[in-house]
Each structure stands twice: as structure tokens, then as C-alpha cells.
Known about the structure:
Blueprint: E1 2-10, H1 16-28, E2 33-38, H2 42-55, E3 60-63, H3 67-76, E4 80-90, H4 91-99, E5 103-108, H5 115-120, E6 123-126, H6 134-145, E7 160-163, E8 170-173
Parallel strand pairs: 1-2, 1-5, 2-3, 4-5, 4-6
Antiparallel strand pairs: 7-8
Helix pairs in contact: 1-6
The chain binds S-adenosylmethionine.
S-adenosylmethionine binds next to strand 4 and helix 6.
Amino acid sequence: MEISILRLSHRIVRDKRVTTHLALVGRAFCAKKMYYSGDRDPSIENKIREVNERFGGDFQVIYIDDPVKFVSNWRKEGGTAIHLTMYGIPLTHLLDELRRKERILLIVGSEKVPRVYYEIVDYNVSITNQPHSEIAAIAVFLDRVLDGLEFTHEFSGGAYRIIPSSRDKKLIRIR
Ligand code: SAM
């Protein structure tokens, strides 16, 4: 299964940190790509490229200028579009069904999400019906649907590898 993220309405001043963290969490928790709309922000794309160079993998951050069309095309091409929202159906009710999908696009907002997204997606899914954060929502979704894959996934091609340690910071250079 392949899961990508669509971050809607990035605002360069207010959202830089949260959008960067969404990409970092998406990457670490085994999503393939993060698309984003709103303000184009090459600093996020560069930051993730740097992280890939240091720690491996090929997670990509890609700007798109028409997210509604993008979601429609995703579905036309056979992918599943899921909007994460506190108003949706709890993830736990849909887990078996969603684990059978081949390509998932996970949509998260920043400011208020326009009504159209609730209507054009295949599912509106909640991670609890309480308001919290797009970063937490993505992390829980990926962890549950990919069944803890983030704990065993190997990122290839990076310059460094971390040796897990209970006390030290152990980092070895591998290329
Ligand atoms: N005020 C915004 C609205 O009414 O749409 C929500 C802002 S929230 C900080 C940003 C994003 O986090 C939401 O668009 C949604 O994608 C995600 N989110 C927040 N709470 C969630 C929940 N309980 N379940 C799933 N996603 C959630």
C-alpha cells in the first residue's frame, strides 16, 4: 500500500513549522510523498531533501496549485481520497477496509477546510472526535493503517545511521 499526504492551504508565515513537521512525520512514518497547496515554500522542500540526504529514503514534497482538481484526478486514477477531520467516522471503524486500499491520499487542513473537500473524498475519517492537530492525526493514521511499520522500516541511501542507545547519541557515517 502507498500513502501520500495532501496539506491544504499552507501559509508561509504561520504554518512553516507545522507543515515542515507534517512532512517529517509523514517521512518517518512511511508515507511516500507530501503534496501541498497554498503558498509555495521551497524551504520546506529543501529541508526534506537535506533530511533524505542525511538519513536516507526518497520522501518528496511537491507543490500543487489546484488541490480540488488534484483530488478528483487521484480518484479518477483509482486512488482513495481520505479527509482527516474531527467530524469524520472514527478510524477504528474503518481499519480493515482501509488496509485493503492500494493508494491513499490523506488530506489535512491548516485553516478552515472548505466544504467541497468533505464532499469529493471517499471518506471523512476522525482520529477521535475532538479537535487537535494535523500532525497527530497523520501520525496515528499511518501507525494504525501500516501497523507499526515505522519501527522496522529501513531508509536506504543516507549518509548516516543512528545506533539506538539508552544513554548516548550514537551516529555512524556510512557513506
Ligand atoms: N479549524 C479548522 C477547521 O475547522 O477545519 C481545523 C484546524 S486543525 C488544527 C488542522 C487539521 O488537523 C484539520 O483540518 C484536520 O485535518 C486535522 N485534525 C484536527 N483534529 C482532528 C481529528 N480529531 N481527527 C482528524 N483530523 C483532525
